[in-house]
Amino acid sequence: MALLTILICIILLVLLVSWGKVNPFIAFLLVSIAAGLMLGIPVDKVVASIQKGMGDILGKLLIIICLGAMLGKLVAVSGAAQKIAQVMVNAVGEKYIQLALVAAGFIIGIPLFYGIGFVLMVPLIFSVAYKYKLPAVFIGLPMLASLSVTHGFLPPHPSPSTLVAMFHADMATTFIYGLMIAIPAIILAGPVFAQFLKNIESNPLATFRAEELPADKLPGAATSFLTALLPVILLMLSACFPYLGIKNEQILHLVAFLGDPAIVMLIALIIATYTLGIKQGRKMSELAVNYTDAVKDIALILLIIAGSGALNEVLVASGVSKQITGQLSMFHLQPLVLGWIIAAIIRVSLGSATVAGLTAANIVVGLVAQNHVNPNLMVLSIGAGSLAFSHVNDSGFWMYKEYFNLSIKDTIKSWSVMESLVSVIGLAGVLIINQFVK
């Protein structure tokens, strides 16, 4: 019954948005209320669950997305993105620009949370697409594939790091195995798959499209790269700090504060305001208008993300995830495959990769010791399953759709299939490695 209810709600959501042309935020609210009532949440607690879901997801993403949009707008209008695109294409040639973006996405994706990496790299993707008249999806999806892989497979991202602890795996070994799986997954789900997407038309958000400036008006290459990548640099420094052996608690607390993604984005925006704004002769009043425009353009994205968080919380609060995993655990399957299936089912049902991974881990954690399963591979198997078929209940789906301004059909054909390829290739890699390590 629970599975049927989820299926009905997902179909209803798709029909409201695609056929009924209902605003996605309103559609999420209606479906969340319907799901809560159908799944037995008390009437007086349905709204509270919706509010909690919105608050939880926006609490994590609001500052990051808004500051990221402002930074992206400034990188675009200042000419920094134009300069970066010029330097990259001149270095590798237009023919290989896609591979250059993929490599950049992978390197940036290791220390960066997915949401930050997304809003940080989208302006660069759009700048390359506009300047060299290349399809935005063809150029951008491979880079996003590399971000997605690092998010699901590689520590120090929250989900794989937590799974390492739950299964008593080794962080370094998991990272090495994850790297072995990540590279073919990115190549096949990125540049190879993107060859079939060249005909998808995309008109990305105008907020990241700036008029081309003459060469003498552009900021320097060093300023452009360092400012645009400053969040990456700060987060990498923060990640490396614990290995310096410093034990002073006050310094550790200060570094933890400065290394928080929201603070990192704020510091990056303040510095960018000077290096790409005031230093380039722009007035603060002009920059304030740019920042306001950036936030206006992502308002709908924030509402849609809030709506997806509401639906996710309703499904979690109803206990549906436990019912699903309880039914699946009765099947007699290879533990690595079972972990992947459970994570994939929860991912498709709830939308959250992190929730899917952690919930699946709680179900199969006892099987690891009982069946002598390699714990490092179980981390990666569940991580791969948690990336399966992203669709309308996943905030990442809507971020991609709205930023790239695509139809739901084209979003599924590109984004959802890419995520599924990453998931399946990840499982295949786990099973192959499992044949050689015990």
Count of DSSP-assigned helices:
21
Identify the overall geometry: globular
Helix/strand order, N-terminal first: HHHHHHHHHHHHHHHHHHHHH
Separation of the first and last Cα atoms: 39 Å
> Which oligomerization state do the chains in this entry correspond to?
single chain
Rounded mean pLDDT is 85
Percent of residues in beta strands? under 5%
Overall radius of gyration: 22 Å
Number of strands: 0
Low-confidence stretches: none
Described by strand count, sense and barrel closure, the largest sheet is: none
Helix content: over 70%
Judged by helices, strands and strand pairing, the structural class is mainly alpha
What does this protein structure show overall?
- The protein has one domain (1-435).
- Helix content is 76%, strand content 0%.
- The chain contains 21 helices and no strands.
- Helix 5 (97-109) packs parallel to helix 7 (136-153).
- The longest helix has 35 residues, at 43-77.
- The protein is globular, with a radius of gyration of 22 Å.
- The relative contact order is 0.15.
Keywords:
transmembrane
Q: What's the arrangement of secondary structure elements?
A:
Blueprint: H1 2-19, H2 24-38, H3 43-77, H4 80-92, H5 97-109, H6 114-131, H7 136-153, H8 158-166, H9 171-194, H10 221-228, H11 230-240, H12 249-258, H13 261-277, H14 284-297, H15 299-317, H16 320-328, H17 335-350, H18 353-370, H19 375-385, H20 395-404, H21 408-434
Helix pairs in contact: 1-2, 2-3, 2-15, 3-6, 3-13, 3-14, 3-15, 4-6, 4-10, 5-6, 5-7, 6-7, 7-9, 7-21, 8-18, 8-19, 9-19, 9-21, 10-13, 11-13, 15-20, 16-17, 17-18, 17-19, 17-21, 18-19, 19-21
